[in-house]
Amino acid sequence: MQLHTIHNGNFKLDGGAMFGVVPKKLWSRTNPPDSNNLCPWAMRSLLIEDGDRLVLIDCGLGDKQSEKFFGHYHPHGDDSLEKSLAKAGFSRNDITDVFLTHLHFDHVGGAVEWNDSRSGYRPSFKNAIYWSNSRHWKWATEPNPRERASFLSENIMPLHESGQLQFVDAADDDLRISTGLGFEAFVVNGHTDAQMCPIITMGDKTLVFMADLLPSVGHIPLPYVMGYDTRPLLTLEERGRIFNEAADKGYHLFLEHDATNEVCTLLQTEKGPRLDQVMKLGEVFSR
């Protein structure tokens, strides 16, 4: 097994929304905003090369949305999915599986592209199976008013219509599941229903793809919960359980949205889990 960081570029979101009730005086120490209170965030995917399987975890915003839409999120940077895959020695057609932690637009947008005539949409990875779970699929396709703007039908329905979508099993009370793709996943419900955070074990090391459970190292203190989360008290409970396990067992945490840091570790302190080290993925798993 080999792991590759895939960079999909950066975008911007409001700092206050990203840190919820935490005062700007505190969160701006780690994530300084611009004059519009916007902070830069990464869209970092993980590529797992395992035998005949090439699994991509999440895939960024994509490029099919309108100029008005992108004007709200300010995508920027020289990185792209295609460039990053090519750097790793692959193309989109090589991807066998796309594992979607959840279906918010900044995680699934790159999963779908325009067709050749720009009259409709098709999956961006023509040879891949796309993986979600039935609980989250129902949540995303019958959205609540709070999340409706994050679940875009053009990012979601073409996956079902293509016949390339399959579900892993995630029951209501599951905390950890087998995905059938060579790794397990934590199931967390505070940010959105049935988000999945993959757990990849190589030798004596464990890497957890944190998705929106831990957007950046600036979010490590347990109460630093995003304003976007639908059930913030549940997020707080889930973060406590998983952060404590990560600190106690020495997990490496892969950060999807941190604009600077790819991977971090946690340590236990009197105030709870805190940042230990930051590093590049290649420093954790030598290739």
Please summarize what this structure is:
The protein is built from nine helices and 15 strands.
Question: How is this structure best described in words?
Answer:
This protein has 287 residues and is an alpha/beta fold. It has 9 helices and 15 strands. It has helices at 15-19, 24-27, 67-73, 81-87, 105-108, 134-141, 153-162, 232-249, 281-284; strands spanning 2-14, 38-50, 53-57, 97-99, 112-114, 121-123, 129-133, 165-168, 176-178, 184-188, 195-202, 205-209, 252-254, 263-269, 272-279. The mean pLDDT is 95.
The general outline is globular
Rounded Rg: 18 Å
Indicate the multimeric state: single chain
Strand content: 25-35%
What is the residue-mean pLDDT, rounded to a whole number?
A: 95
Q: Sheet with the most strands?
A: 7 strands, mixed
Tally of DSSP β-strands: 15
Q: Which class do the helix and strand fractions yield?
A: alpha/beta
Strand order of the largest sheet: 9-10-11-12-13-14-15
* Terminal CA distance: 9 Å
Order of helices and strands: EHHEEHHEHEEEHHEEEEEHEEEH
